[in-house]
Amino acid sequence: MQVxxxxxxxxxxxxxxxxxxxxxxxxxKGKLVVARSRxxxxxxxxxxxxxxxxxxxxxxxxxxxxLLEQWxxxxxxxxxxxxxxxxxxxxxxxxxxxxxxxxxxxxxxxKSMLGEETNLNHALEAAGLDVRETDxxxxxxxxxxxxxxxxxxxxxxxxxxxxxxLFAEKHGRPRLNDISALTHEARxxxxxxxxxxxxxxxxxxxxIAETGSTMIVTNEGNGRMTTTMPRxxxxxxxxxxxVPTLEDVALLLRLLTRSATGQSISNYLSFTxxxxxxxxxxxxxxxxxxIVDAGRTQVLASEIREALRCIRCGACMNHxxxxxxxxxxxxxxxxxxxxxxxxxxxxxxxxxxxxLPNASxxxxxxxxxxxVKIPLPDLMRKLRERQVTEKLRPWAERFGLxxxxxxxxRPAVYGFLTGIAARVGKWIGGAGGLLHKLPAAGxxxxxxxxxxxxxxxxxxxxxxxxxxxxxx
Amino acid sequence: MKVGLFVTCLVDLMRPSIGFASLKLLESAGCExxxxxxxxxxxxxxxNSGDRKAAQDLARKLIAEFAGCDYIVVPSxxxxxxxxxxxxxxxxxxxxxxxxxxxxxRKTYELTDFLVNVARTTSVPGQFSGSVTYHDSCSGLREMGxxxxxxxxxxxxxxxxxxxxxxxxxxxxxxxxFAVKYGEISTRIADLKCEDVQSARADAxxxxxLGCMLNIEGRLRRRGDTNTRVLHxxxxxxxxxxxxxxxxxxxxx
Lengths: 472, 253
Fold this sequence. Notes:
The complex is a heterodimer of chains A (472) and B (253).
Chain A: H1 8-16, H2 19-41, H3 46-62, H4 64-77, E1 81-85, H5 88-101, E2 106-109, H6 113-118, H7 120-126, E3 130-133, H8 136-144, H9 160-171, H10 179-196, E4 199-202, E5 206-208, E6 213-218, H11 222-228, E7 232-238, E8 242-243, H12 246-261, E9 268-272, E10 286-292, H13 296-300, H14 315-318, H15 321-326, H16 337-348, H17 365-369, H18 376-389, H19 395-408, H20 411-429, E11 434-435, H21 443-446, E12 451-452, H22 459-471
Parallel strand pairs in A: 1-10, 2-3, 2-4, 4-7, 5-8, 7-10
Antiparallel strand pairs in A: 5-6, 6-9, 11-12
Helix pairs in contact in A: 2-12, 3-12, 9-10, 16-18
Chain B: E1 2-5, H1 9-14, H2 16-28, E2 32-34, H3 44-48, H4 52-65, E3 71-74, H5 77-90, H6 98-106, E4 108-110, H7 111-117, E5 127-135, H8 138-144, H9 148-154, E6 158-162, H10 178-181, H11 183-199, E7 204-207, H12 210-222, E8 229-232, H13 233-238, H14 243-252
Parallel strand pairs in B: 1-2, 1-3, 3-4, 5-6, 5-7, 7-8
Helix pairs in contact in B: 5-6, 5-8, 7-9, 11-12
C-alpha cells in the first residue's frame, strides 16, 4: 500500500471535520469497547492468561528460526508447497507465478493484511487477473475503491447508508435499508464467484509448528470457502506468526477473539494442513504457503521487537483516544492505531512515518488492553528516541528540549526565568486568568483552548518567603 | 518519617497553591516534610520526546536531591510515574545508579496514594460546599494505581459530594508535548472529556495532575463554561480552593 503517513496531520484534520466518519467512529467505539470488556470479565484469570500469551509469543520470536523449519518440514510432509519471500515484491511475483502456472483467471480472497502491505490486489489486477474480496468489510472497501481503516473491521468508517447506496449502485438492485438484508444481498452476489474461482488467497493468523498447519480466524464463512473451494490455494503470512503447538493456539484464541470483537470464540476457525488428500471431499488440489519477511527480521533485531508479538486483534486501536477520533486512514498505511504507529515506521522506514510514534498521548490504554502485553507506549518512546538520535525532529524542537534541560539543571537560572514567566503570564492573563493566544509552539494549544495563566509568583519564591516567615 | 516533597516544575511555575496544599496535608498527617530548594523537573518532557540524554541529566539531579528522604511524595501521578515506572529503564545504562534508582522507585508515591496507604490518613482539613467529579489521569491510574485513594479522601471532606462522570478513566488528550504538537486532535479529545464532565453536573472537576487540569480547564473556558471550577485534589483536601487569596495570605506572612 502507498505510504502516506507523513501527511498524518493534514489527513487527521480532514477526518476530524468529516461528520460521517465521526459518527461511524463514535458508534464503533461504543460497541467494540463494551463488547471486549464484557467478554474479558468472563475470564476469572485474564491477567494470567495474558502473561502466558505474551510468553508464548516471545518463545515463538526467540526460536523463530527453529520453529519455522519445524513447521516447514511438517507442512511439506503434508503436501504443502512452501515459499519464502524476503520483500513485498517477491510475494506478488510468487502469487502471479502460481496463478500463471495454473491458468487462473478468477481469484477469491479472504482477508489478508499482508496482502495490503504488498499491494497484492493491484499487482494481480495489473497482471490481468480478476480479484474478488469476499470478507464483507473488505468487499465493501474494494467496491468503494478504498483501503481498510481498521485491521479487523475494514469498513468501520462507513455507515449503513453509505453501504446501502454503494450496493444499490454496484449491484444494480433496489436500495435496501436493513443490515441483514444488505448482508444477504452481498452473499448472493458473491456466491457465484466462490463457485467459479480458480484460486483462493488467504492470510494466516498462526502457523503451527508441531503440525505444519496454517489457521485463520473468521466470522463469515468466506474464509472457509476461500481455502477449500478453488483448485489452488495460496496463504500469505509473516514469519512472526509461528507458534509451537496447537495448545498454544488454543490459549491465544481465548484472548484474540475476546480482545477483537468481544466473542468468546469466532464463528469459524479453519485449520489447513496440506492440500486435498485422496478421499477428502473438498480442499484445494495444490496448497501453497508464502512465508514473508518484508522487514520483520529487522524489527526482530531491534529495540522494538515486542511489536512482533502482535496477534492483530485491534484492541489497541479500539481503545486509543487518538484513533477513536481520527479513524485509521490518517495513519497512512496498513496498520493504524498504536500498533500501526510502531509497525509502520518499523516496516516502511522511520523517515516515512515521522508523526506516528509522536501522535499518542501515551495514556497507555493500549498497553493495558493488549492481550500479549506489548508495551506500546514504551515502543513509541523508543522510536521517538531514534528520531532524535537520527536528527529527524525539527531543529527548533531539539533545541527547545536541550534548552529546557540545560536550564532545569541550573536551579538559579531556572528560578530566575520561571519567576519572570510567572509574573508576565499573570499580567497578560489579567483578571480572567486566561491566556487566549500563545506564540510559537503554543499556538497549537490556544487554537482550540485557553491557557490558564500562572499566578504571578512561583512556588520556589513563595516557599522561600514562607520559610523566612516561619523562622521569624 | 522524613518525606521529601517534589512539587514538580509545572506546579512551581503555574499553580504554587498545589505545592502548599500538599505541604499542609503531609504536615497534618504528621510527616516531617523536606522541600529541596534546588528541585526543578523530573525529566519527563525530554524522556517522552526522545531526548534521553536530557532526561538522564535531570533524573540524576533529582536522585541526588532526594537521597536522604524516607519517602518522596509527588502531587502528580505523571511525574510520580516517571520516577517509579520509568527511571529504572531510563537509567539502565548507568549501573552505578541501579541500586539508588530501585530504592528511589520504591519510596516514590503519588500524594493521595501516600496519604491513604502509607500515612494511613483518615481525616483531612478541607471543607467544600458542593459537588465534585473526579477525573482519573492516565499515569496516576495506569502507572501508579491511583483510583480509590483520592475518592476515599474526598469522601472525608466536609460538605463535599462526589458525582461520577460516565468515563472518568478516558484520557483528556493532554499527553505533554502532544497537546502542542497535535493541537487539533488534543482539543477534540479534550472536548469529549468536557462533555462528560459537564454531564456530571458537578460544581468542580477535581483531579491529581496539573497538566490535565490546564488542558481540560483551557477547553472548558474556550467552550464558554466559566462555572465549572477545576481544582487539584490536594487543594480540595487541604481546604485551599481559593488559591489566589490563600497565596496572598501566605505572602503576607
